[in-house]
Amino acid sequence: MKQLFPLLLVFSLCANGYGQTRLFISGGANTTTEFVAEPNLNPGLGNNFISTGTDNVNNSIGKYLRLGLTIEKRLYGPYYWITGLKINQAGYNYASSNSYTDTTNTTYTTKFTSSLKTTYVSIPLLIRVNLYNANTLYLDFGLMENILVDAKLKESVQYYSNQNLYQQYSDQKNIANYLSRFSTCFYFEVGFAVRRLGISAFFQSNAFGSSTDFSSHWNLQPNQSYFLVYFQNFYYHTQGINLTYRIR
After folding, report:
1. pLDDT tens track of the chain, all 248 residues?
2. What pTM, to 2 d.p., does this model score?
3. CA end-to-end span of the chain
4. How many whole angstroms separate alpha carbon 188 and alpha carbon 204?
5. By C-alpha distance, which of 239, 207, 191, 186 is closest to 70?
6. Is there a contact between 179 and 211 (Cβ–Cβ < 8 Å)?
């Protein structure tokens, strides 16, 4: 609760301060989500995947959704203070395989899959610039404080001999307790509004996150798990579209 107190204080001050106040509800989706991970470089762990550098995992439109309640408080002139409460998602989907043929002409293939879907409750701490003071075009920029509430990981590895499955391992669970619960991200949004309706495009860059080792609670070995190899340290970028409606 000590970590939440400054956020709740700012939220309260904004909600009860002076100046014109307007309320908005919003919904949207990420058009792209890019996870950037730094792999665990312990010998042998990355041999099934990528053993050096970083790995980027991209996902397309509509997979991760966003909902929000926004409070807009006028400071002076065209400048506004923005806060509220948002629910947003991010994640990745990964699949790969590798094969080799031995001296008896038998082909062995290993197929890996990994998917992660995280859900955050976020508190925006933004400045809005109402361009030309016309309530039509606006820019939002600042920080968002994120609290991780859910992280569903699902992974599998399958072993084939001449395309015949002979062994497989899989597991899925909520791993939120093994990830960083609190993070801060930079947020930028540009929007267009007509009367009560608005549409905007946003970019969000999340701060560095980390995970603790949960291999003893996972049905895949560390060298079989894409997440355990790569996601000791990671961050992500998202961009997408929001639709807003002014309710007051």
Report:
1. 445 545 554 555 555 555 689 999 999 988 888 777 665 544 444 445 443 333 445 554 457 889 999 999 999 889 999 999 999 988 888 888 888 888 888 888 888 889 889 899 999 999 999 998 888 999 999 999 999 999 999 999 999 988 888 889 999 999 999 988 888 899 999 999 998 999 999 999 876 666 777 888 899 988 888 888 877 777 788 899 999 999 98
2. 0.81
3. 31
4. 6
5. 191
6. yes
Query: What number of other Cβ atoms are within 10 A of residue 40's Cβ?
Result: 17
Instruction: Give the position of tokens 């001050």.
Output: 13
- Smallest CA-to-CA distance from 119 within 152, 88, 85, 154 is with 88
Torsion of CA 225, 229, 230, 231, to 10 degrees: 80
Token couple for 120: 């955050």
Give the DSSP letter string of the chain: -TTTHHHHHHHHHHHHSSS-EEEEEEEEEEEEEEEEEE---STTTTTTS--SS-EEEEE-TTSSEEEEEEEEEEEETTEEEEEEEEEEEEEEEEEEEEEEE-TTS-EEEEEEEEEEEEEEEEEEEEEEEEETTSSSEEEEEEEEEEEEEEEEEEEEEEEEETTEEEEEEEEEEE-GGGB-SEEEEEEEEEEEEETTEEEEEEEEEEPPEEB---GGGSSS-GGG-HHHHHTTEEEEEEEEEEEEEE--
State how far the Cα of 103 lies from the Cα of 229, in Å rounded to an integer: 30
Maximum CA pair distance of the chain? Answer: 80
